[in-house]
Amino acid sequence: MRTLGLLGDAISIMKRDWRLLAALNALFFCILVIGAAISVIYPGLHASIVSIIGADTVAGSMGIAANSGAPGIALSSFFSSFTYLLLITVPSVALPIWGPIIGASRFFIWGVAYVTPLQGGMAAGNLAAEYVLMFLLGEAYIIAIFACVRPLSVAVSALGFGFRQVLALYARSVAENLKLLLVAVILLAAASLYLALAVPALAVIP
Q: How many independent structural domains does the chain possess?
């Protein structure tokens, strides 16, 4: 019941600040599309990124597909994506701009490496399944970034109230935003389960 209450609070926060959340969705998925467009214009960049990251999927978990069952794949994917979620959120408590910067780099790399079926990358059949995974993970990261940016926007909107009031509102907003991470974690879990159950589709041989 407590979890449902926290989830309800998080959804209320998202509804209250839906414009900021919508703007972040538009921004980061535009960055992904820009990355995809650049990979079409410069195929060499696409090949270089794929070579550097060395991952067969968005979650980078296909390397264990042959050696572990669905639970192992799901746990590995969740651990990897949750670690990245912490990389976004923890430094952002002191430096809110950190989350958007790290998130933008991830979306750009996804766009360059995975969105279009270029030579040396994934086949079109694989990409169809990857888009679902990319959306689930991407939305989780955007909600985490939303949680990072929201305290700053709250503080800026309260600048006329004085330093102590701004600080109090910022602290309260940070505490509220911990609830938002519950939504992000649920999306990460859904993405991990999807990856584990969709392994045969993701492993289509071109």
A: 1
